[in-house]
Amino acid sequence: MLQCIFLLADNGAVILEKQLTGHRVDRSICDWFWDHVISQGDSFKSMPVIASPTHYIFQIVRAGITFLACTQVEMPPLMGIEFLCRVADILSDYLGELNEDLIKDNFVIVYELLDEMIDNGFPLTTEPNILREMIAPPNIVSKMLSVVTGNSSNVSDILPGATASCVPWRPTDVKYANNEVYVDLVEEMDAIINSTKQFSLLHARFRDGVLVKCEIYGEVQVNCLLSGLPDLTLSFANPSILHDVRFHPCVRFRPWESHQILSFVPPDGQFKLMSYRVKKLKSTPIYVKPQLTSDAGTCRISVMVGIRNDPGKTIDSIILQFQLPPCILSADLTSNHGTVNVLSNKICTWSIGRIPKDKAPSLSGTMVLETGLETLRVFPTFQVEFRIMGVALSGLQIDKLDLQNVPNRLYKGFRAVTRAGEYEVRS
Amino acid sequence: MFPQFAGTSETLSKAASSLVFRIGTDAHLYDDPEDVNIGALLESRFDSEKCEALKRLLALIAQGFDVSNFFPQVVKNVASQSLEVKKLVYLYLLHYAEKRPNEALLSINCFQKDLGDPNPLVRAWALRAMAGIRLHVISPLVLVAVGKCARDPSVFVRKCAANALPKLHELRQEEITSAIEEIVGILLNDRSPGVVGAAAAAFASICPNNFTLIGRNYRNLCQILPDVEEWGQILLIEILLRYVVASHGLVKESIMSSLLCIESSHSEKDVFDVNVALEDNGIPSRTYDSELVNLVSRSYIEGLGEYLTRSSDTNARLSDLNGARFTSGQTNDDVKLLLQCTSPLLWSHNSAVVLAAAGVHWIMSPKEDIKRIVKPLLFILRSSGASKYVVLCNIQVFAKALPHLFVPHYEDFFVSSSDSYQSKALKLEILSSIVTESSISSVFKEFQDYIRDPDRRFAADTVAAIGLCARRLPKMANTCVEGLLALIRQELLTSDIESGNGEADVLIQSIISIKSIIKQDPSCHEKVIIQLFRSLDSIKVPEARVMIIWMVGEYSSVGVKIPRMLTTVLKYLAWCFKSEAVETKLQILNTTIKCPCFHI
């Protein structure tokens, strides 16, 4: 089981340590770890499980913070990784986001949370709604209160009722004046688009890519503000399109197995009811057509972006990002719409926002290759981001949401959003 | 003009805004924990001041300072009525209890008082802290406390009792071992799933081989499994699996036993073919290597950790458990029940649970049902970057044994630029082991893109994967070799091959791949060999030259044309001998010795 958890800042300094068992882990192990990060670079930082001379180390990196957990005994590696992910989720939920200063400013809460989340190296309470009842998240009111009164307790005096009930994810005595439930379909589109190259480099025209793979990773997120102990059933109009599913522990397996109906007693507040995947989609909402031609040590780049299949709603927050190949010395890029930024680490970002009605956004420019290199042989991959409110591109439709044990006055809301996930266009 | 001033004003305004933001947080405590007299604050009458002192101590702990000298003063505060003070005292106490055992003893009375508190949270905290002190002297007291809490009306307290047991067990006191195991048994029998999960964790670390405790509750445990908390599920699944293997042996319809059978009879055939053959016969052939079966089942029974650390198998207690035993999944209710109760867990939102459940099916499930683990396994690839790597490692093992399972899902292993290098490499390996004639063309199209990736290490790995694909699908060998030769020609056009940015590795790997393809059937690839000989003059990288020169010697008698051009090649080698690298010189000598031997 886990013996110690360290949180490291992006310069390798230990922000805090939490010893979990009697086998203390000296923080010198973090020095060992960071020495290797420096000597081996990024490939070491992307190793989730590392064998140090004394311990196994699990690591995840979130928003620049490295979470390390050490153990000396055999355990399922995914258990350590999943737990660290859960810790990171809960901390960023409590603190609003994750960064070194926020963790330092709220270190007492972080300690108290870790203490409730893990006992003797074994996870204890990881349900966010229960933790919120045990340890109050920092908020403006409590901050002001602590300034005024000098009293800053954020530890609850009583044990959340849910820890004792047969539905451990739900408090027993929830009361709302207005009963509301919101169901959101939050989808991410993963796509690989391949430009048909082979000699196309010689032709000065934009080639449309081939869709290698296009699928939706979606989540059903529910915000449940209901009194008492409600029992909900949610059904879809077209459940057959779902290729894979995973559920929150509150979902009963039987009704899904027999009728593809989600039957559950929900946690209180916001939670992820289900995640799903819809495979083999046929088209994407936007197109990105990159073209790179190189000759005599310079490379001309031009990228065009436009709407391919109008989803019926506005596509916004379009951002294109790509890493310039290491052999490129300098780049001079301009666009007819949006802003272009090239960072020192050769990451280039083109923020487009919305596509204007009157013109197709395009980026163009020239790049200077390394001396001695005539033409470009390696090609960047373009990562695309976008967001479409009000549409679930998978086509999944909610049929109905039925509630039992709920008062009559009730508001049900349904929303959808699709974002780009691992959406990339190869040039 | 004054960049430094601009910089200062910027940092100033930044500092000011963060100051506003930080008001009311504990920021000042972390930044300057020692700017007041902590000792005096600890003695204060006011809870708020005590709190502040304790927070300052915690900040010092976080920053790696030793503040154990405050121990006596902190311990006194354990009696505080404020829950916040209590919580902070516990955090401090547990960090240092081992360093200051005698002073820690002072707090025992207080804990015992708290154990009788009407508030379950107070009882639970007291138990956690008390067990966390880990002192031999107080272990009888802790044992009594745990025993009492194991029957507490509050689920949370019983859960904490289960978590306290391993702490007690770690003191390694023989006289209380049986008492501890008895409490584990009681908690495993609890009707609340939360407690059972924690009890499973206790079982796994205290008495992983005490299968009588599991046997008593087996049906209950299986039925309660879907309701247990995710973390408990991971361990409980493993325990139940080991119990079933220990009490019934391996399942003879399973993949696991057919794999053992194949390995022992040294069959070279694809596992799947043999499976089909077995199904036709109805009765699997009894060619199991009993030693191998013993080995495998034993490693499941004892748990991997213990199995690996123990050198010889002289464990008398277990000797009666094994002995090449098999059971039938069709008739054995325990096996059926375990498979049934782990099936829904393949939908869990915790990827560790999914993987554990998939493991049970891999070992227990009849071959025709094994398919059901494939989609869940592929779906958990999307959960997080870190878990992706571990899941891929597992899929690689599954795919090597049963490639056909993953054949239709090859697209899931296409590389995305956000994957880590390790994940990319694993995906390539998996792809090359599951590729079939129907998927090879799309896979090769993908590979063409990977070769153009700016990460040249990954491009070299892709070239290696092409070689593996050709070995797996001999029909594709010609296409692969042509592609690789084209790549070599392109590489040679690139002038920066020696600049050390990985281009040389791509070239070397292409020749390694070609070499391994030629090795399959040299006579078919005569033209390729000749092309390589001809390219010798333009290939400058010594490692690559060495391999081609080796081929000169190895294939000097292949076909008609090669023997005829041999003298020219050898002349060329002699001519450039002086300017070669040492390794190339050695290989030239080696080759010249080899060649005449064929012709004399």
From TrEMBL, chain A:
Pfam families: Adap_comp_sub (PF00928). PANTHER family: AP COMPLEX SUBUNIT MU (PTHR10529). It is found in: Endomembrane system. GO terms for cellular component: clathrin adaptor complex; cytoplasmic vesicle; endomembrane system. It comes from Citrus sinensis (Sweet orange). Belongs to the adaptor complexes medium subunit family. The keyword Protease does not apply. Signal peptide: none annotated. Keywords: Membrane, Protein transport, Transport. This is MHD domain-containing protein. Coiled coil: none annotated. Residues 178-426 form the MHD domain. CDD domains: AP-3_Mu3_Cterm, AP3_Mu_N. The keyword Protein biosynthesis does not apply. GO terms for biological process: endocytosis; intracellular protein transport.
Automatic annotation (TrEMBL), chain B:
It comes from the Eukaryota. This is AP3-complex subunit beta-A. It comes from Citrus sinensis (Sweet orange).
